[in-house]
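A reminder before we start the practical. When you read a complex entry, don't treat the lines as separate problems. The point of joint prediction is that each chain is placed relative to the others, so the output describes one connected object in space. Small molecules and nucleic acid strands, if listed, are placed in the same frame. In the example below there are two entries. Take a minute to note the order of the lines before looking further.
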Amino acid sequence: MSAADQIPTRAHLPGARILAGLALRAEAVAIPLAALLAGFAAFSLFLLVMGKSPAEFYGLVWKAGFSSAFSWQNTLSRVAPLVLAALCVALPARLGLVVIGGEGAIVLGGLAAAVTGTAVAGVPGYAGLILMALAAMAIGGFWIGAIGALRIRRGVNETISSLLMAYIAIALFNYFVEGPFRDPASLNKPSTAPLAEALRVGDMPWIAAHWGVVAGVLACLVSWVLIDRTTLGFAARIAGDNVRAAQVQGLPVARLVIGFTALGGAFAGLAGFFEVAAVHGSANASLIAGYGYTGILVAFLARHNPLAILPVAVLLGGFEASSGLIQRRMDLPDATILVFEGMVFVIILLSEALYGRFRIFTPAFWERR
Amino acid sequence: MDSVEIGLWGVPLAILGGAIRVSTPFIFVSLGECLTERSGRINLGLEGTLVFGAMSGYAIAYETGSPFAGVLAAAVSGACFGLLHGWICKFKGVNDIAVGIAMMLLGMGLAFFFGKPYIQPVAPDLPSINFGWWSDVPQVRAALQVNVLFILGGLLALAMAWMFRSTRVGLTVRVVGDSTDAARAMGLDPDRVRLLSTAMGGALAGVGGAYLSLFYPGSWTEGISSGQGLMAIALVIFARWNPVNCFWASLLFGGAGALGPALQSIGISEGYYLFFAAPYVLTLGLLILTSSPDRAMQGAPLELSLTK
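Here is the predicted structure of the whole assembly.
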C-alpha cells in the first residue's frame, strides 16, 4: 500500500458516501447470486453429460414451481417448513455454531403437536391450537437448546451432536408412533390419532396456502429484529465473531448460546406443528421429509440473514415442488433435486473465498471517486 | 445342520458376531477420518462418501462380477470426493465443517441418482473366512464368519499406528496437523499434505461403504447407511486420534448396533425401535464424557478446527 492511499481524501462524486456504504451490502448480495448462477451452470453441465436438456429442466421448474396459482400453492406449502428449519440453522450460526440437526426438532415438534391435539380435543376456540403449537415449540427448543448447552458447558462439538440427536429423535418418533401413541385404526401406515377438524390449521383467505407461511414470515422478522436491532443480538454477533473477546467483555455467552439455539429449535418445532396440523392431520412417517436438511442449504445460501431466508426458501421450495414433474417428464430419478442442491451448496461455500477479493466492493474504492 | 438350543448364551454370542459384522464400516471410516484429522482438517462429508462408495462398489461388482473390483471402485470414488473436499478447503475463508455438510448432501444425491438402476439386481458378495470350524454350534459358526475386510481393517489400524509413530510420512502428517507454520518452515506444503490425507481418508470411507453393500447387509438400497459415516467421526474423537483405539471403539459401536437384533432373537421385542437409538445414544454419551469445556483435548491435532 502506498503512502498516498493512507491520506484520507474527500469524496468527489456526489453520493459517493452512500455508494461506499452500499458497497459491502452489494458484495453480500452479488457474491451469493453469482455463486447461485454458477451452481445453475454446473448443474446444466451435469444434465448435458447425462444427455438431458437443461432448458427443459429449468422450464419444468418454472412450470411446476412458479407459473400458476396452483404451482405457487405447491411451492408455498414447502416454504413454511423450509423457512422455519433454516432459522434453526441461521440463529445458532450467528453465534458461530453450525447446528444441522433441525430435522430432529421438526419430527419431535410434530409428534408433540399431534399428541397434545388428542389431549386437548375438547378445549374451545383457538386455545387448543395454541397449546399444540406451544408444545411443539417447547420440545423443539429443548432439543436444540440442549445441543447449545452441551457445546458451551461441555465443549461437545455441536455439528456432530446435533446430527446424532436428529437420529435419536427419529428413533424416538418411530417408537412412539408405532407403540404408545399409535392409532389402532392406522393399519398400513402407523400414525397417531387423526386431529379433530377444529384443530386443523386451514388455508389463508387470499391465497391457497396454509397459515404456516405467515408464521414463517413473522419468525424471520422477529429473528431479524432480534439479531440486527437489539443489544442482545449485538452481543450475540460479537460472541459469534470472537468468543473470548465477548467473554472478556463480560457478555453472558453461555446464556446467549443456549437462548439462540433454543429459539432456533422452537422455530423448527413450530415447522413440525404446521406439518401435522395443516398438512398431514396426524404424526406419521411422512413427517420425516428432509426439510431440516434442505433448511441447512437455505440458511447458508441466505448467509444466515433472516430476511434473505424468505426469498431463498421460495426459490428452493419451487425446485422441490417441481421434483415430481421432472421425474415424470424427463425420466430422471427423484434424487435429481438432491444433486442440484448439493452442487449449489458446494459452490456457495467455494464462493466464501471471494469475499474481500474485489476492490469494487470496498468502501475505499467509492470514497475516493 | 440342527439348531442347538443355547438359551441366553445366544445374546452375547449374537452381540459378538454382530460387533464383528457391523463394525467393519466404522473401522474404515474412522481410520480414514483419523488420517484426515491428524493432518489438521475435518471431513464431515464421509457419510456421503460412504453412501457413494456403497453404490459405486455395488454397481461395479454387479457389472464386472468381481466384488474386489467393486471395492477398488469404491476406494477410487471415495478418493475423488476427498480430493474435491481437500481442494475446496484450500481456499482462505472456507469453513471445512460446512464444506463437509455440503459434500455429504452431494455424495448422497449422486449415489441415489446413479444408484437407481442397481436397487434390484444382485451383485456378488465379498468372501468371508470361517473361524468357527471347530464348533458344532451353528450360532458360534455364524458369529465367527469373519469378512476379509474386517481383518484388513485390523491390520490397517496397526499399520497406520506404526506409520504415525515411526515413518517419515507419518511425521509429515503430524507436523502439518499440529502447526501449519512449523510445517512451512520445514519446507513442507501443508495444503498438499492435507489434500492427500483427505483423499486417502475418502478412499478408506469408500471401502467402508463397499462393505455395506457387498457383505452386510449386502445389497444396495437408499437407506443403506444409518449415519455410520457420521458416528465414525465422533468415534475418532473418542479414540483420541489413535488408529488402534479407533479399531477397538469401532468394535464397541458394532456391539451397540447389534444389541437390538440380538435381544430380538431371544424374543425381547419390547421397545425395539428404542434399540435402534442405542448406537447414537452411546456415541453422544461418549462424546459428552470425553469432551472438555476447556477445549484442550489430549491428543488432538492442534490445527483442527473441530477442537479450536
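Discuss with your neighbour: Chain A touches chain B through 47 residues (CB under 8 Å). What might explain this?
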